[in-house]
Amino acid sequence: MATTKDKDGKPQRRTLIKASDTKIMRHIKIKGEANPFDPAQESYFESRLGWKMDNNLKGKTKLLRLWWRQDKECPHCQEKITKETGWNIHHILPKAQGGKDNISNLMLLHPNCHRQIHSQKLEVVKPAPVKGGLDEA
Ligand SMILES: [Zn+2]
User: Fold this and answer.
1) Which residues form the HNH nuclease domain (predicted)?
2) C-alpha distances in Å from residue 55, one per residue of 61, 65, 84, 132
3) Among 52, 65, 114, 136, who pairs with 109 as Cys (CB 3.0-4.6 Å)?
4) What confidence tens digit (pLDDT) does each residue in 13-63 have?
5) Could you tell me the distance, in angstroms and rounded to a whole number, from the CA of residue 53 to the centre of ligand 1?
6) Are 49 and 39 in contact (CB under 8 A)?
């Protein structure tokens, strides 16, 4: 708290905002040359999308639904995806080929599996959709 005077000279109590109250939000900036139709930049856009989704409620809900749809597993190695392993967003149909950011075109992969898939241009088996119309967002 800090005390200041108002225009009539009466003391006023004010709460100072501490720097530690402000949450640090690291933005991933679009690089000047970034082009969503360039296959080489697919993982760059995927990490940006993942970051965006993790930072708003609607996106977080989508992530959670993806995770449940995959039975919390990575479709590449069939191991569980946890907070500890971390995750990456992967487009089933790459953006470079017209793939959208719809939940039906997304899956979660371990960061390492994701790197392997992109560097070796592997196909990932699409997880079976869960019954109950969860597929479109
Ligand atoms: Zn994996």
Assistant:
1) 63-115
2) 11, 16, 18, 26
3) 114
4) 766 666 666 666 666 655 566 676 677 788 888 999 999 999 999 999 999
5) 20
6) no
Q: Identify the residue whose tokens are 């690089």.
A: 31
How sure is the predictor about 99, in pLDDT bands with cuts at 50, 70 and 90?
Answer: very high
- Ligand 1 centre distance from Cα of residue 7 (Å): 63
* pLDDT score for 19: 61
How is the chain split among helix, strand and coil, in percent rounded to 5?
35, 15, 50
Cα of 17 vs centre of ligand 1, distance in Å, is: 43
* CB-CB contact of 66 with 105 (8 Å): no
Instruction: Output the CA 45–ligand 1 centroid distance in Å.
Output: 19
CA of 88 to the centre of ligand 1 (A): 10
